[in-house]
Amino acid sequence: MSLSADEMRQIFQRTVVVRKPTYGIVCGYHELPYICLGESIEAGWQTTRVKGKVHVSPQFLIRPQHYAPRYEDIFGEENVDVALCGRVFGFLGFPRSPVECSSEHLEVKHLTASMDRVLAESLDELERMEDITTGVIVTPNSRYYPVSVERFIASILDDEFSQ
User: Fold this and answer.
1) How far is CA 29 from CA 33, 54, 150, in A?
2) Which pLDDT score is estimated for 87?
3) 132, 136, 131: which is closest to 119 by C-alpha?
4) 48 beta partners
5) Where are the domains of the chain?
6) What distance in Å separates the CA atoms of residue 135 and residue 51, rounded to the nearest whole number?
7) Residue pLDDT, tens place only, 97-147
8) CA gap 147, 92 in Å, rounded
9) Are 37 and 139 spatial neighbours (Cβ–Cβ below 8 Å)?
10) How many whole angstroms separate alpha carbon 30 and alpha carbon 143?
11) Alpha-carbon Rg of the chain, whole angstroms?
């Protein structure tokens, strides 16, 4: 069964980002670890926990799409600002964006503990480890957790580019 655009939007909007990294993803590091929790869809379990890392694309230079020459050809080498660069992220819901993003180190566990308990334990563990890079997300639908991870990435990009 696939999701309609409306169903995907509902999951995206109902996702709760509980914890974000405490320093900039765009300028700070190249991978974004996360823990995504949701009610289990498997019988006999209460919670599904997905741990993973999203890897960011390398730096790139943005140029107008309708220009065939390189940026330097258009503006001259002396006018190229080496600080003009960016990182692009993407996941399922950004189909029209030129995006490079991969998800690795995926671990899916079905747990007997309640979601509230698993959430509290996960936050406590991250605090004990002094982990400031791992995000925590609660998804309304564990089967489609990638939509919630996309929401997490979008919220970080919103924060990064609104400053």
Assistant:
1) 11, 11, 18
2) 41
3) 136
4) 38, 110
5) 5-59+88-161
6) 10
7) 444 556 667 889 999 999 999 999 999 999 999 998 899 999 999 998 988
8) 7
9) yes
10) 27
11) 19
